[in-house]
Structures are given as structure tokens and as C-alpha cells.
Amino acid sequence: MRTQVAIIGGGPSGLLLGQLLHKAGIDTVILERQSRAHVLGRIRAGVLEAGLVGLMNEAGVGARLQRESFLHHGTNIAYPGGVFHLDFKELIDQHVTVYGQTELTRDLYEARDRSELLTLHECDGVTLCDIETKNPFVEFVQDGKSKRLDCDIIAGCDGFHGPSRQAIPKAKRREFEKVYPFGWLGILSETPPVDDELIYANSDKGFALCSMRNPALSRYYVQCDLSDSPDDWSDDRFWDALKQRIPKAAAERLVTGPSIEKSIAPLRSFVCEPMQWGRLFLCGDAAHIVPPTGAKGLNTAASDVHYLWQALLAFYEEHDETGLNTYSDTALRRVWKTQRFSWYMTRLLHHFPDLSEFDLKVQRAELAHLAENRAAQVALAQNYVGLPY
Ligand code: APR
Ligand code: PHB
């Protein structure tokens, strides 16, 4: 089997890259470890930057997103001193788009099917070979048979636990990590969202977030201990904790109901440098992880995909390898800015067990400054809606 670009990982990064390359007549094969149903069963954030929406439209996959998504022109931040609204439109004349990531992934799969592109599921033992040559290849097992995919380029879109990052020699990899001392307990409930926009809440009891998927499907989170498991949290315990952490007016109008999904996610910041090695290029979670506080996971994967897509266009159309040779530095410049913002939002909004009295005072002062200072609000809004590619 042979293709131009072998994409390892059939998540949002791999699928979006595959569709953009297809539009340019560049052939790809996607090797995915899980079944499609498993991939589409993942519940993940749905706040899209304009850059990602633009890439979906460029890939010809934006129709349902345009029809069914919601524009959010601002967000709410609550803290013990009160609650304030960040009006993105008034501050910077921009917005974010709310559309479930599961739906975005589904749209990309359906577009790939329509394009009759090859996506191989349930691939085991994916091994990257000869990545330092101009003829790399991937070995894998599918349906019990050993197979080989020859290619020009390997795009490592296989997430944090995939093999691509590990294919970069350990002595050449620099990995930066920060693990946070708490997790997010999230639920989905078939109830109307508590507000038209999101509410990020810093409370004495810990962080909470009120989000949504559509007018009848809400997504809520509360900060929890890393030792917790979802079984420790009955629905009643969850709703009580949420009500104690969000503004009183929101708590009073909150519509509760049975959770249809409940899970705990640990929070970490992680970056691998470089993001390329020979003919291997990492995109998305394969190269970096952010805490979800700034909704930057998928959106930073999108900017990686944008840079690699542009570099591959130049490589195939003009035989120009400049973009490929500078991909890692280009992508990392924006990756570190989203890392900073995600760390900032996490530090601003959570209760850290080891926070000193002084640190707590500084955190409160930062929130009070944000509540009253336009320049600070503009800076946060610019980062939240998405920095330019
Ligand atoms: N072989 C093949 N596929 C693999 C392997 C492997 N050994 N290991 C992992 N994968 C697949 C996973 O099953 C998954 O479908 O790679 C895919 C990686 O997808 P994501 O983890 O979703 O990462 P990415 O596509 O970069 O998405 C980035 O979007 O998923 C959200 O917010 C999330 O930050 C994340 C962002
Ligand atoms: C979500 O809707 O799941 C979501 C929204 C914003 C975030 C994180 C998660 O910052």
C-alpha cells in the first residue's frame, strides 16, 4: 500500500488534515487504532475559534456547523467579589462558535467517506519506520494481518498516548510538563443551559463551569480531587456542589436532571519539542496538552493542522520544503501562547490546595482587576477567541 501522506490517528487533527489535503489533490490514508464508534463516543469541549471554523469551511465540511452552531459574543466570569461579563463583540468585535466536537468529528468522517478516502480502523501495533529518510513507512496489524503503508510524509495525529511522539529519539526530545493538583468532574444532562453563554466560576468551594451543547443539552463541570472517581459523585451531590459554586441567580434558575454522562479528567500542561523529526510531523495532542480551562485543545490542534497543510501544499506543488523545515518552530510559537493562556485561566479560576493566604489575595485581585479594567479584558478576550495563525 502507498500514499503521499500517512496520517496516524483518526481524531479531529488527522481528519481535518486529511480533508484539507484532499481538497488540494494530495492523497492520504488514515490509520486509527479504535473503531469509528469509539472515536465518536468521546465527549469533548465545543468552543471553536474562528480559525478552526475557517479551516472546516476551507475543507468543505462547514455546512452543518454553520447551520447548527451557536455564536457566543461573550462569556461570564464569577468570583467571590461578583460576576462580570466579557463582551467579545464590544471589546474586540469577535466571537467564538459553540459546536460539539463530537459533531465536528462526525462531519469530518462523513466528508471523508464521501471523498472515498481510505480510513483503516482497529489498526494495532502501528510502528513508524525510516522517518529520517525520504521514504518512510508505517507497519501495523489489521484483521490479524501484518501490513505496510509506504509514504512521503507521516503526520502524527495520534494524541497523547500514540506512538508518533515516541518515534522522535528520546535524546532529541525536550518535554515540558505541569500536572495540576485537581481534576474536572463533568456531566452531560438533557436540560436547558443555565445561561445563554458560558459561566466560569472561581468560588471558595472550587472551580465550576456551565457550558452547553445545544438548547436541550447542557455540559457542567466542577473541580474535584484527583483521588475522586465518578462513582463518588451522585447526581444530587454534583448539583449541590455546582449550585454552591455559581452565582446565586444562576443557581436559583438552574434546571437539574439525571446525568447521561459523567467522567473525571485530570488536568495537565504538556509540550514536546521538536514537533517534527525527519519526515514525521506531530499535530495536536500528539505534541501538546492543555488544561481545558481555556478551551484550547482542539483549537491549538487546528493551528498545527493549518501550518502543516500549508507546508505540504508548498512541498507538493512547488517542491519547496521551507514550510516543512520550519514547521516545528512555527507551530510551537503559537502552541506556547495557548499554553500560557490555558495555564493563566487555570491558575486564575481554581482553588489550589497549596495556595497561601497571599496567593489567594493576589488571585482575587487579578479577578477584581479583570472585572474593572478594559485593557485586561481586551487581552483576555483576544486570547480566548483565538490568536491569529
Ligand atoms: N495507532 C493509531 N491511532 C492511534 C494510536 C495508535 N497507536 N494511538 C492513538 N490513536 C488515535 C486515537 O484513538 C485517537 O482517535 O489517535 C487519535 C487522536 O485523537 P485525539 O486524542 O482526539 O487528538 P487530536 O486529534 O489531536 O485532537 C486534539 O481535540 O480530541 C480533542 O480536545 C481534544 O485536545 C484534543 C484535541
Ligand atoms: C465544554 O463545553 O465542554 C467546555 C467549554 C469551555 C471550556 C471547557 C470545556 O473552557
Write the layout of secondary structure elements.
Blueprint (H helix, E strand, L loop, with lengths): L4 E4 L3 H12 L4 E4 L4 H5 L6 E2 L1 H9 L4 H6 L1 E3 L1 E6 L2 E6 H5 L3 E3 L2 H14 L3 E3 L3 E6 L7 E6 L2 E6 L2 E4 L7 H4 L6 E16 L9 E5 L2 E9 L2 E8 L10 H11 L2 H6 L5 E15 L2 E2 L2 E3 L5 E2 L7 H22 L3 H4 L1 H23 L7 H16 L1 H12 L4
Parallel strand pairs: 1-2, 1-12, 2-8, 5-14, 12-19
Antiparallel strand pairs: 3-7, 4-7, 5-6, 9-10, 10-11, 13-16, 13-17, 14-15, 15-16, 17-20, 18-19
Bound molecules: adenosine-5-diphosphoribose (APR) and P-hydroxybenzoic acid.
Characterize the structure shown.
By secondary structure, the chain is α+β, with helices and mostly antiparallel strands. The chain is 38% helix and 29% strand. The chain has 14 helices and 20 strands. The chain has helices at residues 12-23, 36-40, 50-58, 63-68, 88-92, 101-114, 164-167, 235-245, 248-253, 297-318, 322-325, 327-349, 357-372, 374-385; strands at residues 5-8, 28-31, 47-48, 70-72, 74-79, 82-87, 96-98, 118-120, 124-129, 137-142, 145-150, 153-156, 174-189, 199-203, 206-214, 217-224, 259-273, 276-277, 280-282, 288-289. Strand 18 (276-277) and strand 19 (280-282) form a beta hairpin. Bound molecules: adenosine-5-diphosphoribose and P-hydroxybenzoic acid (PHB). The site of adenosine-5-diphosphoribose has 28 residues, from helix 1 and helix 10.
Give me a quick take on this structure:
The mean pLDDT is 97.
Entry keywords:
38% helix, 389 residues, globular, 8-stranded mixed beta sheet, alpha+beta, binds adenosine-5-diphosphoribose, binds P-hydroxybenzoic acid, 6-stranded mixed beta sheet
